Amino acid sequence: MAVALVAVVGGSWFGYQQLAGPNCSGRIELSVATAPEIAPAVRGAADQWVADGAAVGGTCIAVNVSSSESVEVAAAVASKHGATLAGVGQASGTAVTPDVWVPDSSTWLVRLKSGGASAFAPTNGASIARSPVVVALPEPVASRIGWPDKKLRWSDLLTQVTASKPLRAGIVEPTQDAAGLSGLLSLTAAASSTGDSGSPKAQEAMVGALRALATNRSSLRQDLLARFPRSSDPTAIANGLGAAALSEEDVIAYNSTKPPIRLAALYLEPVPIPLDYPFAVLPGIEPAKASAARVLFEVLRTPDFKDRLAAQALRAPDGNWGRGFQAPTGAPSPANGGASQVPPSGQGGAADLDPGAISTATTTWSVATQSGRMLCVIDVSGSMKKPVATANGASREQVTVAAASQGLGLFDDSWSIGLWTFSTNLQGSQDWSELVGIKPLSSNRGALQRGLASIKPSSGDTGLYDTMLAAYKKVQQDWEPGKVNSIVLFTDGKNEDDNGISQKELLDQLKKLKDDEQPVQVVIIGIGTEVNRAELESITKVTGGGAFVTTDPSKIGEIFLRAIALRPPAPR
Questions:
Q1: What region holds the VWFA domain (predicted)?
Q2: What is the mean pLDDT of residues 216-220?
Q3: Residue 261 CA neighbour count, 13 Å, CB half
Q4: Which residue among 141, 184, 244, 530 is least packed, with the fewest CB closer than 10 Å?
């Protein structure tokens, strides 16, 4: 029996049907990369389809299903499409992008699009499975806070992890793990509700939550799971991991190993973004493969596939489950609201996700949990006095200083930060002025806050080139191993210093100074309409880093965080 496609008017596709005719001319090889936990179900269904005679237009289909961590495929896709994802490293040299990708979450598709992959437009993207994101706690710990009878919220968890004697919470790196990201989004939303968004109280709560999670973070899910207590001894329970955002499937799989202490799955409100396993046909594949992929998708939406999912502790896309599913205690079921794990629109997928919220969460996490050495350089030329219409009339200078001050609150004491200002002839014939030297925040935070508060615009012009060269030499001079050494420069104009070095002289000197063994990353944030993007990019192309330009100065706070988060890992 052969499987063939049936097209209908308008280009939509119905299911698949069995047609007589065992003969095929040629073969289509469809490569499918899936998240590891769903791979057995997809492979089983695809193998059965092929055994039954899968074909498109008389051409046989072979399906190669590989088990691939979502972050690894995301890195390969990002590399191919020129995107940069916060916290995601470079793709391995052997990484190959598949024809069809089934990551564990649509958040990967959103991050790729918002990370610069403008040409990344996968087709389909509909969910083929679902696993709610839960907070996993050792059952004795869960019982102490009211499980399974008490209905708990993310605000309750926030209180537990930031208390004077906190619950030891952990997380898989949310920039690399979709369940970790979902938990982070829910917890930071709970923190922001403690005050007005962006208020000192809300930011303090958010930073406290991030630091609490970062203490017990892990880059690998199995490493995090190994930190849960492995003995019923009270000391072991007290010293073990107390809570972590994981998928329902993670908890079921963990408990199936019959550990000494089982994990409870807490389904907190508001419902976090579930893992939704989108079926993404990647752009650029040939039409015959795209046709084969459309039929395979229908194979993965049948009742039989729901039972295959159940065997892997996964739900169907609507939140219901197939035969043999072993639900955790307290799990929402088809009878009592299991489908409530579906987003409100009922559609799911990337369309229901907020790219801004995801970007803010990943960048804030990266800034708050990494360590670095940075010189912050702020333009104080006369044009910085201009009012910003979208900031209630505050000047460009005030908006810039406010963004830097808010960012300062996210950096922990392991950071070393210094502060310069620049214009023209700021100190005699020198264009720059050092307000605070580069020192650890453990002893420097107060000086930086006072330095930022003292900044006022001058009447000078923009001495960009001389300042950039001096800043580069300064950061390179006391380069610190194990950290990203960087310059972050804010400016609202192009170089206007007739008495300084030329652009060519600056670039020539930077090329001579650059040392691949001791790199200095340069991030330039251009503000307003007078900046010259090409001028800024000519610098960062030599040094490494990046130039970010916004015509709306009120947006520089989020750009500042994004710029810091997108820096490469510190050299080892």
A1: 373-564
A2: 90
A3: 24
A4: 530
Mean model confidence pLDDT for the chain: 86
* pLDDT of res. 88: 84
Give CA–CA dist 126/419, Å, rounded.
48
Q: For residues 242 and 77, give the distance between their C-alpha atoms in angstroms, rounded to a whole number.
A: 35
**Residue 125 structure tokens:** 């993207």
**Which residue is associated with the tokens 């652009």?**
503
The length of the chain, given as a count of residues:
572
Instruction: Evaluate whether 116 touches 258 at the Cβ level (below 8 Å).
Output: no
Give the Cβ contact number of residue 504 at 10 Å: 10
553-557 long-range contacts (CB < 8 A, ≥24 apart) are 553/388, 553/390, 553/391, 553/396, 553/399, 553/400, 553/492, 553/527, 553/528, 554/388, 554/390, 554/391, 554/399, 556/399, 556/400, 556/403, 556/490, 556/525, 556/527, 557/402, 557/403, 557/406, 557/407
* Location of structure tokens 């040939």: 286
Task: Report how far apart, in Å, the C-alpha atoms of 389 and of each of 335, 393, 394, 396, 399 are.
Answer: 53, 5, 8, 10, 11
Report the distance separating Cα 92 and Cα 69, nearest Å: 12
Phi, psi of 512 (to 5 degrees): -70, -35
Tell me if the bond preceding 200 is cis, omega within 30° of 0.
no
pLDDT in tens, 324-356: 999 999 998 765 544 444 443 334 567 778 888
Rounded CA separation 267/340 (Å): 11
Q: Pull the structure tokens for residue 320.
A: 């219901």
Asked if residue 572 has pLDDT above 70, the reply is no
Using a 10 angstrom Cβ sphere, with 0-12 exposed, 13-18 middle and 19 or more buried, the burial of residue 551 is exposed
* pTM attached to this predicted model: 0.77
Q: Which whole-number Å values give the CA distances from 384 to 404, 423, 463, 534, in the listed order?
A: 15, 10, 13, 21
Beta strands across the sheet bearing 169-172: 217-218, 169-172, 243-247, 133-138, 263-266
Residues with Cβ within 8 Å of 222's Cβ and at least 6 positions away in sequence, in order, are: none
d(CA 415, CA 370): 8
DSSP label at 7?
B
Provide the token pair at 385. 């006095």
Task: Answer yes or no: are the C-beta atoms of 70 and 60 closer than 8 Å.
Answer: no
| Strands, E assignment, 203-344 | 217-218, 243-247, 263-266, 278-281
Kindly state the tokens that stand for 42.
């997809």
Cα–Cα distance for residue pair 101/96, rounded to 1 Å: 11
